[in-house]
Here is the input.
Amino acid sequence: MTLVKAARWFSSVLVAASAVASAATPDDQSVSLGHHQFESSCAMCHAVEKSKGNIVGPNLAGVVGRKIGKLSGFQYSAALKDSKGAWDEASLDAFLKNPQAAQPGTAMPFAGIRNDEDRRALITYLKTAR
Here is the structure.
């Protein structure tokens, strides 16, 4: 392989790797908007730092992928305790839009986030909360 061919190959590998990395990493603006949404809508009842434990609501660190209603140490409503599945983008989106419609009988006293972009940003932020 000539030096020119090697440089072209390496350059295309870098471009491909960069595209994959940017697709897998949430953009900073969405995370920042999601953090703001969390602080204004969720932080009074939920924490996202594992060390803070549960507050009024369950700790949301690692919520994406967690089984619904199964965080140890939190007393869930029967509605959430009996739920099947795990929190993913679709289930979080539905719950954050209208908790009572998504999980009838939930004890979460929250009207929901009507704005689609605000919910998407919040979910993007929650995906970073590990």
Observations:
- DSSP finds six helices and no strands in the chain.
- Residues 17 and 23 are 10 Å apart (CA to CA).
- Confidence is low (pLDDT under 50) at residues 13-24.
